[in-house]
């Protein structure tokens, strides 16, 4: 199997690292493209039964690459890559688990809503500051977040931009299990091994029934991306993003 993102393969489980090609804990266009290719190929590889997403040591993912938001010449290819990545993830036919150890911010957090299980260390934090940036959420989380967190929980998380500790994220339903005093990656791989041993057809059919119509998610991804693209053409939003980028530098 031709894998493009940084991966490992163990016992029918594909372990995928969420990061840029140059080792930063962010997703840029190339990272979106490589993740999409990886998921496309894993979807049709019978040897892959479960996918586990992991971050770099001490940080899951800090979100998108701000420099690409601020460079209009990169927007078209970036939007295409983001759309393909999230459409691929929304329609991926096999179980996806995430192991979070550290910060999950922006797209590094919204990607978790597509995971069937999210295991986190007790030091992990979760934040989606899209509204603070003048942007809307991505990855069909305008559907998935109210489903998982309830409307009030989703409104608080996305509109107030609160940072959630692991316990709060578990109470809301974003995190499935908290791993204290051990390796969250090993815990996730343990769950993956359990799933990989299940009868494949029954597992995939059950997951498909639980997830329902993924076409609705793809339509919402397109709608969110359209609003996101409009925001990147707004002078007020661009000035806000530039100011935030300077502060973060």
Tell me the CATH superfamily. 2-enoyl-CoA Hydratase, Chain A, domain 1
What is the strand arrangement across the widest sheet? 1-2-3-5-7-10
The beta-strand count equals: 10
Second-tier CATH architecture:
Alpha-Beta Complex
Structural class: alpha/beta
Structure report:
- The structure is a single chain.
- This protein has a single domain, classed as 2-enoyl-CoA Hydratase, Chain A, domain 1, CATH 3.90.226.10.
- It has twelve helices and ten strands.
- Helix 1 (29-43) runs parallel beside helix 3, helix 3 packs antiparallel against helix 11 (214-231) and helix 6 crosses helix 7.
- The relative contact order is 0.14.
- The model has no long low-confidence stretch (mean pLDDT 94).
- The protein is globular, with a radius of gyration of 17 Å.
- Helices cover 51% and strands 15% of the residues.
- The longest helix has 18 residues, at 214-231.
- A six-stranded mixed sheet has the order 1-2-3-5-7-10, with helices on both faces. It has a four-stranded mixed sheet with strand order 4-6-8-9.
- With 249 residues, the protein is an alpha/beta fold.
- Helix 1 links the parallel strand 2 (13-17) and strand 3 (50-54).
Q: How would you sum up this structure in a few lines?
A:
With 249 residues, the chain is α/β, with parallel strands linked by helices. The chain contains 12 helices and 10 strands.
């Amino acid at each position: 199997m031709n894998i493009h993102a940084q991966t490992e393969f163990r016992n029918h489980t594909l372990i995928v690292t969420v990061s840029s090609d140059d080792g930063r804990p962010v997703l840029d266009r190339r990272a979106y493209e490589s993740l999409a290719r990886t998921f496309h190929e894993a979807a049709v590889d019978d040897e892959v039964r479960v996918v586990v997403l992991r971050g770099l040591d001490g940080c899951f993912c800090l979100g998108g690459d701000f420099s690409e938001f601020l460079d209009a010449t990169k927007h078209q290819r970036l939007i295409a890559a983001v759309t393909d990545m999230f459409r691929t993830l929304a329609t991926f036919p096999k179980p996806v688990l995430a192991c979070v150890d550290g910060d999950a911010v922006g797209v590094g957090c919204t990607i978790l809503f597509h995971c069937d299980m999210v295991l986190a260390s007790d030091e992990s934090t979760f934040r989606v500051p899209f509204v603070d940036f003048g942007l809307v959420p991505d990855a069909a989380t305008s559907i998935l977040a109210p489903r998982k967190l309830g409307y009030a929980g989703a409104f608080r998380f996305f509109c107030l931009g609160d940072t959630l500790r692991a316990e709060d994220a578990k109470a809301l339903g974003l995190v499935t299990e908290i791993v204290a005093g051990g390796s969250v990656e090993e815990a996730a791989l343990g769950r993956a091994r359990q799933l990989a041993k299940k009868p494949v057809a029954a597992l995939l059919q059950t997951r498909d029934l639980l997830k329902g119509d993924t076409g609705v998610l793809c339509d919402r991804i397109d709608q969110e991306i359209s609003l996101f693209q409009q925001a990147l053409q707004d002078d007020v939003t661009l000035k806000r993003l530039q100011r935030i980028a300077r502060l973060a530098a």
